[in-house]
Each structure stands twice: as structure tokens, then as C-alpha cells.
């Protein structure tokens, strides 16, 4: 148990399934995987100009909105719990934020024209990108500082500004270079994506750039997925020096099942879109006194699979 003194190292670290649980990790990984499949289909179909893929576009936008909001949310949780959260859990949050960023950027590649048609959608996306960038860079600075100081892994991440350096670890150079490259890359990509989002016209070679960026973002998503699976207790082996104690982060509960259940919502919305939009009646209808079937435009649509049984409901 942390006493608030950064000079006192706790004996162990409590597990945190809300951050590194199996359901939480799978929700980010599955959403990222489905988003890349949809974005790749839209971009490749766009090269052939064979279809506009309206259903895929709606589903991709739903997954992207869900991913970027949960990515921002989990980073806010990590920063709010700095005084109790150890670098192990904070690093997993940072990896999940990279998955969120990759999903957002690949959605921007595929749906940029959709966002340009509506200035509200365009600026909402811009604000979310800016907030995600700020939180991602701030979290990256904390991660970089823990590597530079070789911080004791059982101390809270907030202690990184107070503890003395313990020298360099064996993989310090690679970790520092990789962390700095990701932070700088996030800033550069934000500038380029902002231009891409607000530019009125794009050159003809932009479609080739879309494919190249799709491959780069795919590599980013795969790398973050592999790393989070290796580092997490739910799917891999966390560092032994963390001394995790408590219920395993791989255990399933309703709190772990809920993020996966929320993935069904975009699919349900897509089914509703495929079946057509509901049209509201032009005037108030009293269901008790005026049957809906009196109006030809709003007749009840029977189930075609019931066949002759539909006649029982027409009376």
C-alpha cells in the first residue's frame, strides 16, 4: 500500500482490471481490427470507384467514435490516478491510446470527404484529435521520464519527478529512442491530418498516399497490440519486479464483459440503417383511437418469413 512517500517502496502492486483487464484490452484490440478492415475496404474500393460503401462508412464511423472517446477517457483516468497508478498500468494505458490514435487516423483516411461535407462533424473530429494528441504526448512524457530515471516499478507514476535516477537499464537506449519517436510522430501526424481534414482539394496522387499511410498505421496498430498482449497479465507476462497481487486481470466479470457488449451497438445501428430510416408521421397519432394501418404510408410491414401466418395479424 502506497503511503504517499516516494522514498518508501511498497512491497507489491495491486492489480487493476479496469485498466488492464482482458475485456478492456480486447475491446480496444477488436475495435481497432474491425476499423482497419472497414477502412481498407473503403479505400481499396475507392481506388476502383466501384461503390460508395455507405453501410461500411457508417459502421466505421461508429467504431471510430467509440474508440477515440474510450481512448481519451482511459487516458484521463490514468492521469487522474497518477498518485496510485504504477508505471506498468500507465504504460498499458499509453499503448491503448496508440490503438485509439491509429483507429482515428485510419478512419480519417477513409472518411475524410464525409467529414468535409459537414463543418460540425469536421470540427468535432478536430477537437477530439487535439485532445487525444495532448493527452498522448503528456502520457508519453511520463513514460519517457520513467525510462530515463529507471524508476522503481512499484512506485506510483507521480513519483517520477521526485525520485533520483537509478542509472540506465539494459534496454534504456532502445526504449528512449522508441518513446521519443512515437511522441514526435504523434505531433507530425496531427499536423498532417489537420491539413488533410481541412484542405478543400487533394492532388491526384493522394490516393497512393492513402494506401501507404494505411500500411503504416496498420503496422502501428499491430505493434501496439503485440506489445500490450506481451506486457499485460491478462494475456502475457508482466515484469516480475512489479509484484502484482490481487485478483488476476485475466479474470472475467461483468465489468470486463461490458466493453465487449458495447461493440454490438454499432452493429445494431448498422442493421437499422440497412433496414431504412424510420419516418415520423406528419401529425400526432393516437394509438388507442386511430390504428396506424389507416395511413397507407405507415402500414405495418409483416414478416415475409411467416408466410400465410401474416393473415392472422391482418384482422
Automatic annotation (TrEMBL):
It comes from the Eukaryota. Keywords: Membrane, Transmembrane, Transmembrane helix. Residues 300-315 have a biased composition (Polar residues). The chain crosses the membrane at residues 20-47, 92-115, 127-148, 172-197, 209-230. InterPro entries: Elsinochrome_Biosynth-Asso. Residues 281-315 are annotated as: Disordered. This is Uncharacterized protein. It comes from Ampelomyces quisqualis.
Amino acid at each position: 500500500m502506497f503511503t504517499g512517500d516516494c522514498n518508501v517502496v511498497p512491497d507489491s502492486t495491486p492489480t487493476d482490471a479496469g485498466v488492464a483487464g482482458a475485456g478492456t484490452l480486447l475491446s480496444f484490440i477488436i475495435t481497432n481490427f474491425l476499423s482497419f478492415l472497414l477502412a481498407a475496404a473503403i479505400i481499396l474500393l475507392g481506388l476502383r470507384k466501384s461503390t460508395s460503401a455507405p453501410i461500411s462508412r457508417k459502421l466505421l464511423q461508429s467504431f471510430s467514435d467509440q474508440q477515440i472517446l474510450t481512448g481519451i477517457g482511459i487516458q484521463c483516468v490514468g492521469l487522474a490516478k497518477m498518485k496510485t497508478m504504477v508505471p506498468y498500468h500507465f504504460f498499458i494505458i499509453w499503448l491503448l491510446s496508440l490503438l485509439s490514435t491509429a483507429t482515428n487516423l485510419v478512419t480519417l483516411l477513409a472518411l475524410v470527404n464525409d467529414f468535409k461535407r459537414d463543418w460540425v462533424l469536421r470540427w468535432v473530429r478536430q477537437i477530439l484529435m487535439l485532445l487525444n494528441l495532448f493527452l498522448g504526448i503528456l502520457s508519453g512524457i511520463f513514460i519517457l521520464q520513467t525510462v530515463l530515471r529507471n524508476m522503481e516499478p512499484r512506485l506510483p507514476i507521480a513519483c517520477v519527478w521526485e525520485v533520483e535516477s537509478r542509472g540506465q537499464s539494459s534496454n534504456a537506449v532502445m526504449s528512449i529512442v522508441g518513446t521519443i519517436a512515437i511522441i514526435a510522430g504523434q505531433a507530425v501526424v496531427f499536423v498532417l491530418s489537420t491539413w488533410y481534414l481541412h484542405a478543400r482539394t487533394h492532388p491526384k496522387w493522394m490516393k497512393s498516399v492513402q494506401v501507404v499511410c494505411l500500411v503504416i498505421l496498420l503496422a502501428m496498430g499491430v505493434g501496439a497490440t503485440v506489445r500490450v498482449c506481451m506486457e499485460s497479465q491478462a494475456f502475457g507476462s508482466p515484469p516480475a519486479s512489479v509484484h502484482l497481487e490481487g485478483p488476476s486481470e485475466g479474470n472475467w466479470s461483468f465489468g470486463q464483459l461490458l466493453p465487449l457488449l458495447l461493440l454490438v451497438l454499432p452493429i445494431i445501428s448498422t442493421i437499422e440503417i440497412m433496414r431504412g430510416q424510420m419516418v415520423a408521421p406528419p401529425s400526432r397519432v393516437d394509438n388507442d383511437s386511430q390504428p396506424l394501418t389507416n395511413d397507407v404510408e405507415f402500414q405495418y410491414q409483416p414478416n415475409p418469413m411467416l408466410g400465410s401466418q401474416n393473415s392472422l395479424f391482418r384482422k
